[in-house]
Automatic annotation (TrEMBL):
Record domain Kinesin motor: where: 17-347
Family: Belongs to the TRAFAC class myosin-kinesin ATPase superfamily. Kinesin family.
Annotated region (Disordered), positions in chain: 748-787
Residue runs in coiled coils: none
Skewed-composition ranges (Polar residues): 751-761
Residues bound to ATP: G108, S109, T110, G111, S112, G113, K114, T115
Name of this protein: Kinesin-like protein
Pfam family, one: Kinesin
Provenance organism: Rehmannia glutinosa (Chinese foxglove)
SMART domains: KISc
Superkingdom of origin organism: Eukaryota
Keywords from the UniProt entry: ATP-binding, Microtubule, Motor protein, Nucleotide-binding
């Protein structure tokens, strides 16, 4: 398959960029405990309460410690490494041969089976060996006549020091930032491999050099993170002769995720534990920033995160294999691992968000690059003309022009880089501030409700790291700002020189192009920057609006009172959920606030299973649908859009979105795509997978539920005119289609969306907070002039 086609295909599989699999190992011969883990439907993991004495009453009153989670894949104790590989990993490996990056890492507490899963045994080879087998198979079957080279390196990170596991007595290795290759480990041995046969041997050799300790939980517990990197270099012969494509696959066997205190360690081991956890925390942050560029100025980025940067960012595919033990005495570790893996599912949302901005960014970049290369070509032509006719332009003049052209080009490039860095910094800071708010919420919730000292301490430590990052980023931003000012000064000087030369020199065309080139470069950069700032301002204003709502509600006012109070002052107060559809509708849409469901703490927001607010939904009413599809019909349909997203969900009962015609069946249909105001059409839409009539359809009305797996795992989008999905009962919405975006409960048989954590049952404690302001170092020129 051509690389281009592969990319097209892989974009459609974008939502598979991050997947979570859980693998439960069998009880070992030494373990005498009870098996408390059950795997259902290849996706669900049920952890039973280790306390057998809990009775039926405890169970129905939800007092047991039984926990249930759903993942992309779940494997029980009878699954072999090959089973795990075939279902969850194999499809990813094909991408590596086509030049994509992928990271597969095993996460779990000590003794849960990480090394077994990654390395395996002769009878049950692990993911490292199986992946290499596939790579060689694919290369053998490739009929493109391209040349391939496969190399492996194997390193460990122990206490923030890097060692080469393929070297007998490796010293400490250093990380280097290479402008072409990104982050590299200086002096790391990279072995050319021609077949997968040797790899298990090499891995075993490497593993025997890993730092292991006997902890209370595991006799030979790995105290380090081990990274096997397989690099596939493909030299193309036909499509783009001699173009080299590199795909990297990182297979990571992390150190045990248990807390230092849990392994009963002290001294050196305690320090190991701290470093292991620091790396894990950073890895989690890095994964959370998936799809983003490397963020500048983070206070400290641990080695493991830096090493894995390429494989965790951009459009790399990442698979997390969470390993658990079925033993009852491992209950806490098992639940902690599953909770962490469950949280990792949120990463998909980030990917979607960053993909949208990534697409915009790529479009701008492409336009800019095309323009720049056109002008470069013109410049080169003019230069060759000048060289060909030296009598018309003396040598010193040509060299002066060359220098001027070179400096102009550097000045433009520097400006682009600085603006890009500043934008990235702003994005990092926004994310940091958002996380800070979440942490404040979580700390408040812990202090008020659950009062778990250890959790509060961990949250506060994380809070401090974020605060440090914000401070460092602010300082860095001021530095960038100064560099931009210097760049601007140089730009003015260069412009003066060009203007002067145009006035005095006959070679006007050349200088004119140079000037145009410089101007276009700057204009493009500024446009890009302006767009990013605009996005940020819109985002910040929404945040500020939300914060103000929280603030007002924490003072004991409910929404109705706030709206009335505003009306008395002649101020129109918009609902917190309200977001004007960008350029699509001028009418203000406000949900019916007199509805008795919307009392002060019961916002029409859904909460996910951890109690955090799930991505906001954006309801659109029937009027909006009619605007786009004026054909009179009784079939309800609705469009809705998530906040900060430009694409819309279309949900209908038996109506196609494109032709506004009856679908072949009377099933609920749901699509994801873009609305066009001009043509009033729904473009580039694609149907959402496996929509089905669910138990929510009880009302007999059009409550369509679409599995949004491609977009955000486990989230569902739907609509109804007479059905309240939160209460699980029929209700009267006065004929208005209600757009809902939420998560399904674990038990699909329940007929409520998110019944366990619906807004009526778990309100998030009110938190006084101040509106978020733009960081002070945002380019003040844009702030003043444009907004
Ligand atoms: N699927 C499995 N089938 C049989 N035995 C297994 C399986 N998974 C793990 N084991 C056994 O469980 C024990 C612990 O496994 P392993 O060393 O892989 O754990 P680990 O998570 O890497 O631990 P640590 O973090 O302490 O290094 C080993 O004896 C291993 O052989």
């Amino acid at each position: 398959m051509l690389v281009r086609e592969y990319w097209k295909k892989s974009f459609s599989q974008l939502m598979k960029l991050f997947e979570v699999a859980v693998k439960c190992r069998p009880l070992t011969a030494r373990e005498r405990g009870r098996d408390i883990v059950r795997v259902h439907n290849d996706k669900e993991v049920l952890v039973l309460d280790p306390d057998l004495s809990k009775d039926y009453l405890d169970r129905i009153q939800n007092r047991t410690k039984e926990r249930k989670y759903t993942f992309d894949y779940a494997f029980g104790p009878n699954s072999s490494n090959l089973d795990v590989y075939k279902r969850s990993v194999r499809s990813t490996i094909a991408g590596v041969v086509q030049g994509l990056n992928a990271t597969i890492f095993a996460y779990g507490s000590t003794g849960s089976g990480k090394t077994y899963t990654m390395v395996g045994t002769r009878d049950d080879p692990g993911l490292m060996v199986l992946s290499l087998n596939t790579i060689f198979d694919l290369i053998e079957k490739d009929n493109s006549s391209d040349n391939f080279q496969v190399t492996c390196s194997y390193l460990e990170v122990y206490n923030e020091v890097i060692y080469d596991l393929l070297e007998k007595s490796s010293g400490h290795l250093e990380l280097r930032e290479d402008p072409e290759q990104g982050i590299t480990v200086a002096g790391l041995r990279s072995i050319k491999v021609n077949s997968a046969d040797r790899i298990l041997e090499l891995l075993n050799l490497g593993n025997s050099r890993r730092k292991t300790e006997s902890t209370e939980v595991n006799e030979t517990s790995s105290r380090s993170h081990a990274v096997l990197e397989i690099s596939v270099t493909r030299k193309q012969q036909k499509e783009y002769p001699n173009q080299v494509i590199r795909g990297k696959l990182a297979l990571v066997d992390l150190a045990g995720s248990e807390r230092a205190s849990e392994t009963n360690s002290g001294g050196q081991k305690l320090r190991d534990g701290a470093n292991i956890n620091r790396s894990l925390l950073a890895l989690a942050n890095c994964i959370n920033a998936l799809g983003k560029q490397q963020k500048k100025g983070l206070a400290y980025v641990p080695k493991l995160t830096r090493i894995l940067k390429d494989g965790l960012s951009g459009n790399s595919q990442t698979i997390m294999i969470a390993t658990i033990s079925p033993a009852d005495n491992q209950y806490h570790h098992t639940v902690n691992t599953l909770k962490y893996a469950d949280r990792a599912k949120e990463i998909k949302t980030h990917i979607q968000e960053s993909y949208d901005s990534y697409c915009n960014y790529m479009r701008n970049q492409f336009a800019l690059q095309t323009e720049v290369s056109r002008l470069r070509k013109e410049l080169a032509e003019k230069e060759s003309q000048l060289n060909a006719k030296p009598e018309k332009a003396p040598d010193d003049e040509i060299s002066w022009l060359n220098t001027l052209s070179q400096e102009t080009s550097e000045n433009v490039q520097e400006r682009i880089n600085l603006q890009k860095a500043l934008i990235e910094l702003e994005e990092t800071n926004l994310r940091n501030r958002k996380e800070l708010q979440h942490l404040d919420d979580a700390i408040a919730k812990q202090q008020v409700i659950e009062n778990d000292g250890a959790v509060v301490q961990a949250l506060q430590a994380r809070r401090q790291v974020i605060l440090d990052n914000i401070r460092d980023n602010d300082e860095l931003g001021v530095g960038y700002q100064k560099e931009i000012e210097a760049n601007e000064q140089r730009r003015c000087q260069l412009q003066d020189m060009i203007d002067e030369a145009i006035r005095n020199n006959g070679n006007k065309t050349y200088l004119g192009i140079l000037s145009q080139y410089r101007l276009l470069g700057i204009t493009n950069t500024e446009l890009q920057f302006e767009m990013a700032i605009r996005d940020q301002i819109i985002y910040s204003q929404r945040e500020a609006q939300r914060n103000l709502w929280n603030l007002l509600m924490s003072l004991g006012l409910n929404e109705k009172q706030i709206v009335e109070l505003g009306a008395k002052q002649g101020v129109t107060v918009e609902d917190i959920q309200m977001t004007t559809p960008l350029g699509l509708s001028n009418t203000t849409h406000t949900p019916n606030m007199t509805d008795e469901r919307y009392t002060s703490l019961t916002r029409p927001t859904f909460y996910d299973q951890s109690g955090a607010i799930s991505p906001c939904f954006f309801p659109q009413d029937g009027e909006f649908s009619t605007r786009y599809f004026p054909v009179e019909t009784r079939k309800p349909r609705a469009f809705f859009r998530e906040e900060h997203h430009t694409s819309y969900y279309y949900v209908s009962h038996g109506l196609s979105p494109s032709a506004n015609q009856q679908c072949c069946s009377n099933q609920p249909s749901s699509y994801y795509g873009a609305l066009d105001q001009q043509t009033r059409g729904f473009h580039n839409s694609f149907p959402l997978k496996s929509h089905h009539i669910s138990p929510y359809d009880e009302s007999g009305d059009a409550w369509a539920v679409a599995n949004r797996k491609e977009v955000n795992m486990n989230s569902y989008v739907g609509m109804s005119s007479t059905w309240d999905p939160c209460k699980g009962m029929a209700t009267n919405h006065g004929g208005i289609n209600q757009g809902i975006f939420g998560r399904l409960p674990v038990e699909e048989s329940s007929n409520k969306v998110n019944s366990q954590h619906s807004y009526t049952k778990s309100p998030i404690p009110a938190r006084p907070s101040v509106p978020h302001m733009l960081p002070s170092h945002v380019n003040s020129k844009f702030k003043r002039e444009k907004f």
